[in-house]
Amino acid sequence: MASPDSSILPAVVRDHQREILQQWIAEQSSGSNARSDLLSDAELRQQSSEFLQLFREAVQAGNLGNVMGTEWQGVRELLATVSKANAIRGFTPIDTATFVLSLKRPLFQQLTTDAGSDADLLARETWTVTTVLDSLALFTTEVFQRSREEVISRQQQELMELSTPVVKLWDGILAVPLIGTLDSARTQVVMESLLQRIVDTEAGIAIIDIAGVPTVDTLVAQHLIKTVAAARLMGAECIISGIRPQIAQTIVHLGVELVGAVTKATLADAILYALRQSGWSVSRGRS
Amino acid sequence: MDRIPILKMGPFLLVTIQVDMHDRLALSLQDDLAERIASTEARGVLIDISSLEIVDSFIGRVLANIAAVSRVLDAQTVVVGMQPAVAITLVELGLSLPGVRTALNVERGMELLRAALESETLGSDGDASTAF
Q: Which domains are present in chain A?
């Protein structure tokens, strides 16, 4: 019989790793939470055996009270990977936590067999296993949630990039401050909203500010040219402003010509030009 | 066969396309317009396509042709009131109508034609106002 301080868990996991794994996989794939639609049997088997191997090493190293300790580093890393993958694949947090929690039954069975008639030992071991697995399950939930939050914040950022307001600067002068990468889908949105606003406000001049566009390649330039051409067809003149020195160099290196558009270095220059074009003059009042 | 009416307004001709342009109609407009420019000695042509909702590459080409023909006959062409969807379609088709001047509405188009005519009669450089 083992002394009260020492746990039989390391020995149990070491000696019966194979049986536990079998039962655990059976448990996972038979339960009501089995997600064979999202995870193949082979993947499940690999995940489970990897986890059990690391779990065994961690248990052998001791420190069963604190799963945040260095002994559990490997286990935590594996769980983090699994949780992240699950979050992306569309598992629920329950599915992810169940991955760990379903290990309880096989372990308890094995402990019951090994503890024999020693009720105290069994109760103690059960408690140890429960706390360890619960902490690990909570850990997966936390990682799961964090990955989901990452997904959400990324989507928010993309949404923000997508929203391109067309602002009215002056009577007959519109501006589109472009921020973020300009792909064809986005160009379509920009073009449509700009042209619609040209119709609505009867604007004769549209300023496209590309200061927020990180890179300009031939495709982006092509999109700009298309927008300019479409605006011209409607009878509005386009000014492209906010061209950074590097971008100006890139445009020249690529051999792109922004046909039909007036280009200005800054939005301020563009506004001044637009005002003059529409007959306004700007002068400073008394300072 | 229906025809698109061509109205004379001083030195300019005004064409308002109110129906869906089919190919024959477009061709007959091109012929009629050439005739009228010659007979009236018009100095400018204003084509209002604000009611035109569908264009294809053929109509786009006819518009470009009309502009080219008028230019040969010494009349400027201004296309006004193009719908956003039409503009996008033409650009996607690769027809950005290089020789054609554009304006937002009939009023602006008339201003444009008048300004062009004035600058011509004043003897200043007429080509400069013939924007791309």
A: 9-156 (1.10.490), 167-277 (3.30.750.24)
- List the CATH code of the domain at B6-129: 3.30.750.24
Choose among A202, A233, A236: nearest Cβ to B96: A233
Across the interface, whether the CB atoms of B79 and A233 are under 8 A apart is answered yes
ipTM value, please give it: 0.79
Question: Which residue of A203, A233, A259 is in closest CB contact with B82?
Answer: A233
Residues A180-209 pLDDT 10s: 877 777 788 888 889 999 999 999 999 999
Model pTM above 0.80: no
Contact B84 A198 (CB under 8 A): yes
The amino acid at residue A208 is: I
Residues sharing a CB contact under 8 Å with residue A261, sequence separation 6 or more, in sequence order: A208, A224, A225, A228, A238, A239, A240
Q: What is the pLDDT of residues B52-77, one digit of tens each?
A: 888 888 988 898 899 899 989 989 89
Chain A hits for B110, Cβ within 8 Å: none
Taking CA–CA distances from A230, the nearest residue in chain B reads: B87
Can you tell me which residue has the tokens 């699950």?
A86
